[in-house]
Amino acid sequence: MFFGQHYHNIDKKGRVFVPAKYRAELGEEFMLSRSPDGKRCLCIYPMEEWLKIDEKLKALPGVQAGKLVRFMYSGAESVSCDSQGRVLIPSTLREYAGLESETAVIGMSSKLEIWDGAAFRAEEAEETPESIAELARELGF
After folding, report:
1. Which of 66, 61, 26 is nearest to 47 (CA)?
2. Beta bridge partners of residue 34, listed in sequence order
3. Which H or E run contains 30?
């Protein structure tokens, strides 16, 4: 299970540090993709989670499903960490998520999100304890 938030700078080659506590759960090879939830961030999925997404995508009905399948697969890369715990983010994905200097690596239960640090802070600032409490009530949490 992934949780917490960690801030790291992206280096000149486009590599982001993945905290050690996440690397063991990710395994040797994992998937990097654009987030399907409308946010300009990237997601890192352990391979077993990516296979679940693959099954869901294959089961979607209709022509409209092709848009989501195309979005997810055209922006996906199989990646791994180097010996220093960094993952290389392809330039197209760095551009999509606006990753230029500081990044936020966010634990999201079964996946990680990689955000531009300033964009994540802005996202967090939009929510208040009251708005989160209201959302929790709406969701029956």
Report:
1. 26
2. 42
3. strand 30-34
